[in-house]
Structure prediction request, 303 residues.
Amino acid sequence: MGEVAASMARVISGKPEAIRLSLVALLAEGHLLIEDVPGVGKTMLAKSLARSLDCSMNRIQFTPDLLPGDVTGVSVFDQRTSTFEFRAGAIFAHIVLGDEINRASPKTQSALLEAMEEQQVSVDGQTHRLPQPFMVIATQNPVEMEGTYPLPEAQRDRFMLQISLGYPDASAEIAMISTHELSDPLESLTPVTDAATLRTLRLATRSVYTSDSIKKYVVSLVSATRGTPLLRLGASPRASVHLVHAAKAMALLSGRDHVLPDDVQALAVPVLSHRVLLSTEAHLDRRNAPGIIADLVTRVPVA
Prediction:
């Protein structure tokens, strides 16, 4: 996956950790949520990942008038055969870029739930499998910005990781200006791996060894989010599963065949922080979810 990271770095300057976490989600068979203010490269990161893979890609621009059928597909009556024919929606691709996902209505956002969890969609009683490998990369603006809807808790829980890019430093921003000065850098990207290779790497990720002590540590860490008074909603059991899968991918990217506590600690914030809800006490203390999760990581002992 080093070639994929290098390809993405040609477009995304000064953000190696964001690139690494996006590859973790890709290998761990998870979905990625990128939240940040407009203009910092959320869509560019998603596109650079998709274009580095020789896989099909569809982009869905989420707007308030987007309908669930636009995402999943619809059944259309064919007068010639007097039957209903299924016309696939934009979700039928290996990589699906959901741009500004929280500008659509909750009903349309919910149309993604079955696809993200079960790799299929159901329309008019018929089940249609999605192409494999399958990954959703969604971008969203902060909820306090005009025209946004908060993502339902159930949908946030489907995303394995949430990352933020933040503003680039001065040198990275100068490099970005130079890169974009003459042409769009995305146009020069060519695929460096294909779907078959990605499927093989995903199988290798599954086989990375995770000891019982690591699993106990993950459960202890996730359970701690349910016991702190700073959170009124802790992380779900799905979060434990996602944290282990992500840690396996991190180990594989690091050239190891086993998971270390360091992998779990490095991923705790991006895997857990978007799944929890702050209590009134935390709001009054001006705390945020990433800070609370990071504090729990320092306090929960390694099994």
